[in-house]
Amino acid sequence: MRPPYPLIGKSLLMLALLAGGALGVHLLTFSTTGVDTDLDYQRHFNESYKIFSLNLPNDLTFCGEKVPMDKLDVRERLDRELLVNTYWQSNSLLAHKRANRWFPVIEPILKAEGVPDDMKYIALIESGLTNVVSPMGATGFWQFMKDTGIKHGMEVNAEVDERYNVTRSTKAACDYLKEAYGRYGSWSLAAASYNLGPGGLDKQLGRQKNNDYFALLLPEETSRYVFRVLAMKEIITDPERYGFHLRKKDLYPTYRTRTMEVTGPIDDLNDLAVRQGTDYKTLKLLNPWLRDIKLTNPKGNTYQLLLPADGFDKATGDE
């Protein structure tokens, strides 16, 4: 069998060995042949690479409602989502970074609308706090379908799609969740309805004669839904417990912006951006709800455009 490091010369290997460093030990171990090579390699792997199971929280609430952690299936369902998000490190790191930017925008709206703060994690698990579009056409942080978005007061057309507007879509999500809470009397069922839809949830409630989310047999995605929220809440709230260590400078800062009120048409958004001391890309970054190069605004609506407070270099608030 050819040695794993054919390009490392003998002189370099001897120098590393004489230095007594860890590199020399590793080179010696993994460049030899014979039965002991695999045994040494396996021993080194077992000593160096550790994967731990997780200690589950004993007390947990969702929107002030107690999670029945004494139920075996509840613990296992939570364990699954905590494991998935703990060991999908890149995704959870991005979640931390983006949450630092966008939760300060979402949280005051939830509070003003009387919706529990825990609901902000719905936007996180739905979209990763990015303006993604699902295969079914659900769009934005809160993943609204077109008809549902319009029903809850958002403008959706070829030039303006407020599903991409974090403020407007968060208010629409609050409207949906409050309506669902009024229907079911439970925030966990309101969250399940956000995923399954009221028709699908009503069918299961009627069939099973039970209105406890944690006691219902639901479709797989909906069965996992609240637990996905709970897992991200746990990891974002107490990152070091789950092995995440982030410095303040690692987190994405909030955008530093100023607001420009628009009540008429804009013939060319690029020209507007340049006149305002920025560029087209930045204008669209801060206002992704603008879906065209122009804004005809035939109804004379009032729009709030965000622009960099002091130019693009300082738009993120970096010190």
Describe the structure.
- The N and C termini lie far apart (55 Å).
- The chain has helices at residues 10-19, 22-31, 35-48, 72-87, 89-113, 120-127, 146-151, 166-184, 187-196, 198-208, 220-237, 269-275, 280-286, and strands spanning 61-62, 65-66, 257-262, 303-308.
- By secondary structure, it is mainly alpha-helical.
- The chain is globular.
- Residues 1-34 and 312-319 have low confidence and may be disordered.
- The strands form 2 sheets. A two-stranded antiparallel sheet has the order 1-2. It has a two-stranded antiparallel sheet with strand order 3-4.
- Strand 1 and strand 2 form a beta hairpin.
- The longest helix is centred in the N-terminal third of the chain and has 25 residues, at 89-113.
- The protein folds into 3 domains: 10-48, no CATH class; 61-250, Lysozyme (Orthogonal Bundle), CATH 1.10.530.10; 257-314.
- The chain has 13 helices and 4 strands.
- The relative contact order is 0.10.
* Average pLDDT over all residues: 88
What pattern of helices and strands is seen along the backbone?
A: HHHEEHHHHHHHHEHHE
Please, how many domains?
Answer: 3
Instruction: Report strand order across the widest sheet.
Output: 1-2
Distance between the termini: 55 Å
At CATH level 3, the topology of the largest domain is Lysozyme
Count of helical stretches: 13
The CATH class of the largest domain is Mainly Alpha
| Global Rg | 26 Å
Tell me how many strands there are.
4
CATH architectural category of the largest domain: Orthogonal Bundle
